[in-house]
């Protein structure tokens, strides 16, 4: 009888707490959303499963010596997110940006969502007694507005590792919800006439320009802001590998195998940071709310800046491409294309929106570098 | 500015204004560099006057009225538009045909015959 009791005590069934049960429930819901509904399955499956594993009592996967503990070092030390940036760089075409340099400014305007949320988080900390965000935590929450998963994870792992779980989940959820969140904001802030604007065809960009671009941007940005070196450096290296055209095998590897390998490792370890004790707090709810705010404000300021450029260009720039200034490549561009085409079926905004879209990636990496400089 | 221990709203505002200024400045400089790219690497191609396309006419046939060929083309366009519409389920109004090019025959005659037979059998089945 004693043996039976001892065995029972050693099982997870006896040790499980109600919070862990809730977390397992959340993990299962995410798995359902990923597999059945197809929401970002590539990320959500590993994240949800990591969440499931870490909330199994007595498994000890995240304790020193556990498998996930070691895998998590890649996230904690800021290795995986820049590697993802390497892969993203290898898959990004900066051609539309090079062809239309003005569109870069839209990518800058959309970063306002980050700083608006930063102020919002500090404000909540001051007025709500049950919410507390320190400066680095406020910065980590705000970066959700950059709509750039790897950047958010990179900054959070440096500044507020405890918030990694909720921030990753908020950031990736909103990125998946781009087609739902952005169109109403775009329509509310522009007139029908503005949304119908057809833009001039982009000039062709030579291979030489595409090769020089990543080198120059890397040199200039890293000299200006050394703290952004990891992200910008890897992004531009990935792009140079692709544009150089002389290392097709490396391009192929970074675009595919490496991307998937790092995604699995990053996903499972980020999920593993969603431990019940850390996750089920008032902060998590405010992170989810602030994340949505960050994302919406970023979209709105992008569109408003687009309106300004519409005025200044004498009606040549369609303001809805400003919404693509939040990163979320290429989803935000596709949404701009779709909304534009609804208003005017012969409108093709996709390539024009790609300019602000990839500028948004550079912009949010710069913003992350700045926040890192202030708070690390 | 020591921000590690806690941050006040006014410090937050300073960080915001400074950071947004730097983000803008960085991207403005990149934008200027790219404008320089345009003048350094890109020479606008001179627009050649568009030559009027001469319709290929088989030497053996005598075409008395070119209007007919144009008419036939329109017919072809509408047939292709209808086929695309049927295949994709989109309404014809949403399909914009900009260009139709004849692809030179690549597959051998026997393959064409087989394909036609397949299509015919399919049609018979319905």
UniProtKB/TrEMBL annotation, chain A:
UniProt key word Plastid: no
Mode of membrane association: Multi-pass membrane protein
GO biological process: sodium ion transport
InterPro entries in the record: OadB_MmdB (IPR005661)
TM helices/strands, residue ranges: 12-35, 42-59, 79-97, 104-124, 163-190, 211-237, 257-274, 286-305, 348-375
Keywords recorded for this protein, A-Z: Cell membrane, Ion transport, Membrane, Sodium, Sodium transport, Translocase, Transmembrane, Transmembrane helix, Transport
Coiled-coil regions, chain positions: none
Localisation per UniProt entry: Cell membrane
CC annotations in GO: plasma membrane
Pfam family, one: OAD_beta
Main localization of the protein described in the UniProt heading: membrane
Keyword Transmembrane helix attributed: yes
GO molecular function per UniProt: lyase activity
Matching PANTHER family: OXALOACETATE DECARBOXYLASE BETA CHAIN 2
UniProt-recorded name of the protein: Sodium ion-translocating decarboxylase subunit beta
The organism of origin for this protein: Senegalia massiliensis
Automatic annotation (TrEMBL), chain B:
Location(s), subcellular: Cell membrane
Residues that span the membrane, as ranges: 12-37
BP-aspect Gene Ontology terms: sodium ion export across plasma membrane
Single annotated GO MF: sodium ion transmembrane transporter activity
Highest taxon listed in the record's lineage: Bacteria
UniProt keyword Flavoprotein, yes or no: no
Major subcellular location class: membrane
Matching Pfam families: OAD_gamma (PF04277)
Record keywords: Cell membrane, Membrane, Transmembrane, Transmembrane helix
A cellular component annotation (GO) from this entry: plasma membrane
Name the UniProt record assigns to this protein: Sodium pump decarboxylase subunit gamma
């Amino acid at each position: 009888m004693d043996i039976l009791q001892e065995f029972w005590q050693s099982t997870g069934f006896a040790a499980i707490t109600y919070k862990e049960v809730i977390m397992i429930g959340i993990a299962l819901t995410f798995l359902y959303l990923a597999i059945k509904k197809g929401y970002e399955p590539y990320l959500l499956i590993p994240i949800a499963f990591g969440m499931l594993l870490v909330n199994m009592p007595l498994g000890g996967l995240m304790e020193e010596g556990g498998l996930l503990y070691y895998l998590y070092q890649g996230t904690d030390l800021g290795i995986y997110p820049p590697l993802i940036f390497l892969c993203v760089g290898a898959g990004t075409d900066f051609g539309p940006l090079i062809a239309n340099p003005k569109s870069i400014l839209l990518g800058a305007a959309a970063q306002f969502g980050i700083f608006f949320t930063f102020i919002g988080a500090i404000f909540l900390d001051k007025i709500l007694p049950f919410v507390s965000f320190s400066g680095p935590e406020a910065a980590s929450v705000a970066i959700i507005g950059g709509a750039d998963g790897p950047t958010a994870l990179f900054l959070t792992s440096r500044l507020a590792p405890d918030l990694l779980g909720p921030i990753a989940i908020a950031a990736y959820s909103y990125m998946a919800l781009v087609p739902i969140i952005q169109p109403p904001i775009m329509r509310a802030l522009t007139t029908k006439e503005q949304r119908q604007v057809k833009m001039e065809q982009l000039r062709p960009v030579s291979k030489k320009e595409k090769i020089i671009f990543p080198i120059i941007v890397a040199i200039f940005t890293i000299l200006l802001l050394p703290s952004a070196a990891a992200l910008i450096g890897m992004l531009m290296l990935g792009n140079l590998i692709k544009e150089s055209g002389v290392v097709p095998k490396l391009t192929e590897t970074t675009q595919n195998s490496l991307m998937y390998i790092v995604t699995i490792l990053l996903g499972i370890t980020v999920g593993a940071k969603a431990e019940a004790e850390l996750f089920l707090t008032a902060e998590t709810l405010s992170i989810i709310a602030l994340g949505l705010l960050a994302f919406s404000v970023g979209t709105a300021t992008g569109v408003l800046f687009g309106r300004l450029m519409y005025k200044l260009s004498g009606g040549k720039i369609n303001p809805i491409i400003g919404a693509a200034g939040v990163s979320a490549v290429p989803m935000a561009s596709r949404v701009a294309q779709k909304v534009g085409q609804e208003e005017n079926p012969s409108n093709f905004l996709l390539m024009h929106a790609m300019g602000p879209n990839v500028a948004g990636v550079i912009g949010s990496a710069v913003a992350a570098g700045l926040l890192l400089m202030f708070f690390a | 500015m020591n921000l590690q221990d806690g941050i006040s709203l006014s410090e937050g505002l300073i960080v915001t204004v400074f950071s947004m200024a730097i983000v803008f400045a960085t991207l403005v400089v990149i934008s200027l560099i790219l404008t320089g790219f345009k003048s350094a690497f890109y020479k606008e191609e001179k627009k050649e006057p568009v030559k009027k396309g001469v319709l290929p006419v088989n030497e053996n046939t005598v075409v008395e009225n070119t209007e007919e060929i144009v008419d036939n083309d329109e017919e072809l366009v509408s047939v292709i538009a209808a086929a695309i519409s049927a295949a994709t389920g989109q309404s014809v109004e949403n399909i914009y045909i900009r260009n139709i090019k004849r692809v030179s025959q690549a597959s051998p005659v026997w393959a064409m015959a087989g394909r036609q037979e397949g299509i015919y059998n399919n049609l018979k089945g319905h």
